[in-house]
Write the C-alpha cells for this entry.
Amino acid sequence: MSPKALLRSPDAVSSINDFKEGTTFRRVIGDDLNDTKNIRRVLICSGKHYYTLRNKRDELNDSTTAIIRIEELCPFPAAELQTELNKYAGAGMFWAQEESRNG
C-alpha cells in the first residue's frame, strides 16, 4: 500500500458519529469481531499496516485472528491495550509491522 493510498480509501473514512460531542480520540482500537471465543491469534499493529492485515484476513476468511490497532505509540497506551488483550485470553499475541527486520 502506497503512503498516500489511505487518503482516498473508503476503508479509512470515519463516520460522522466519530466527531459528535462526547467522543474522544481512541489510542487503541479493538477488533469489532463478535465471537471472541474462537480467537486463537491476536495481531497488534499501528498505522496503515492494519488495512493490509485486515484485507488478508478477509481474503483468507479467517475468523480466528483479531487485529488490534495502536493509534498512539508515545506515551504507550499500556492500560488500554491490556483491556483489549483481556478479551482474548489464551490466544497468541503478535506484534505485526511492515518490515520484518531493520538491518
Residues 31 and 67 are 6 Å apart (CA to CA). Residues 49-59 form the longest helix (11 residues). Strands lie at 28-29, 41-45, 65-70, 92-95.
